[in-house]
Amino acid sequence: MENNKFNAEPDFGKKLNEEFSKIKQEIKKPNVLIAGATGVGKSSLINYIFGDKVAEVGTGKPVTQKIDVYESDSSDVRIFDSKGYELGMQGDEDFYNNVVNLAKATNNPHNAIHLIWYCIACSGGRVQDYDLAAINAFSKSNIPVAVVFTKADTPSEEEMKAMRGCIPTNMQGNIFETSVIKEEYNQTKELIAWSINKLPESLRFAFVKSQLGNLEEKWEQAHKMIKQHCAAAFAVGFTPIPMSDAPILVANEIALMARILYLYNLGEIKDVMSEGAVGSLIGSLLSAGGKAAVGALVKLIPGVGTLVGGLINGSVGAIITAAFGEATSKVAYEVSKERINGGDISDLMKEFGPRVMALAKEYFKAGKKVDEYTL
Q1: Contact yes or no for 234/213 (Cβ under 8 A)
Q2: 278 vs 355: CA distance, rounded Å
Q3: Handedness of CA 161, 162, 164, 168 (dihedral sign)
Q4: Of 12, 97, 332, 353, which residue is the least packed, with the fewest Cβ within 10 Å?
Q5: In the predicted model, what is the mean pLDDT of residues 242-268?
Q6: Cα distance between residue 6 and residue 231, in whole Å
Q7: What angle do CA 49, 87, 43 make, to 5 degrees?
Q8: In 10 A of CB 90, how many CB atoms?
């Protein structure tokens, strides 16, 4: 009778959806302020990095007279977009009251700014005094500030060098050149990496998930999560499969898959997987066929051999988790890359489960040691 609960495949799909929804509800969102004069390309930069034309079709709500906040269902980053201005003209006082002071404010945690990207268009050929005044004001706010030169494909090398040289010495390490037209002038990946590093740990997952400009950051974040779940699997110290600890291992795998799919913005796949594929995939690895199914895979792990007395120890559990997680992340990476490149991902989505299973077996055969995942 006990085996029956491991054969109820629809329950696996339901659990995956529950875990996915739980992540979405509990995730902590960072607030990024994008500032700069009129026409510097703030919207283009936002849409290039976060996609879905966030700055155009997102729900923009006024926070102050000078700032709109953009949020979308596909992004877990709140974008605070300062309306164009020019210091030294009428409206200076409004800018400081509504933009600089908002960045400094700490009395409203929901609107607290975590990062500032100050944009300057290279097409102008120079850094204006009002840019330097704004950068100086922001740098005193104790919030990480990046100077983002947009349209970096337009100036000559000499002009670009001169513009960079105008930025204060203490900000030289925070300068990034970007272009949404020519990739060779584009440092958005470096800007994204800098931003992730500057954010508090609790906010990094949401930022990595939401940005589309650096897929490698998603890969690295996924690997960190896999290590966490491997450590959890290792700690269980399993009793005989399919007895008391089997559901714990299954729950660990499902939670890991949900986090990886969420990280790669692949919620569509969880809907496909909920049609029974989750039970087939995870069941084949862990439980649907009881210890025989797991044992068949364990035989592929060098040095482990068959199950002894129906036991799976922590090392084997961690290896299974590692193979499952790495395979899921690799397929998710492939699907995401194809989607970013504008390809059709419908067939890749349909083959997601079988592809993960095939890769998991390859990881077993590779004979990786458990400490590669748990340390």
Answers
A1: no
A2: 13
A3: positive
A4: 97
A5: 79
A6: 23
A7: 15
A8: 7
Place of tokens 């902590």: 28
Per-residue buried b or exposed e for 182-196, using 16+ beta carbons within 10 Å of the residue's own CB? eeebbbbbbbbbbbb
Asked if residues 314 and 236 have their Cβ atoms less than 8 Å apart, the reply is yes
Residue-wise pLDDT tens digits, 283-305 = 555 543 334 334 544 554 444 44
Dihedral of the CA atoms 269, 271, 273, 278 (nearest 10)?
Answer: 120
Q: Give me 82's structure tokens.
A: 């300062």
- Of the candidates 7, 60, 20, the one whose C-alpha atom is nearest the C-alpha of residue 267 is 20
Judge contact between 282 and 254, C-beta under 8 A: yes
d(CA 275, CA 273): 5
CB 352 within 8 A of CB 280: no
137, 160, 203, 207, 223 from 200: Cα distances, Å = 22, 32, 6, 11, 19
Amino acid occupying residue 351: E
Given 3-state DSSP classes, what are the helix, strand and coil percentages for the chain, each rounded to the nearest 5? 60, 10, 30
Question: How many Cβ atoms are within 10 Å of 336's Cβ, its own excluded?
Answer: 20
User: Counting Cβ atoms within 10 Å, is residue 356 exposed (0-12), middle (13-18) or buried (19+)?
Assistant: buried
pTM (whole model) above 0.85: no
Angle at 179 between CA 177 and CA 181, to 5 degrees: 160
> How many angstroms separate the Cα of 259 from the Cα of each of 66, 176, 225, 249?
36, 30, 8, 16
Q: What single-letter amino acid sits at 88?
A: G
3-class DSSP assignment, residue 118: strand
Distance between the two ends of the chain, CA-based, in angstroms?
A: 38
Ramachandran class of 52: left when φ > 0, alpha when ψ lies in -120 to 50, beta otherwise: left
- d(CA 43, CA 31) in angstroms, rounded, equals 16
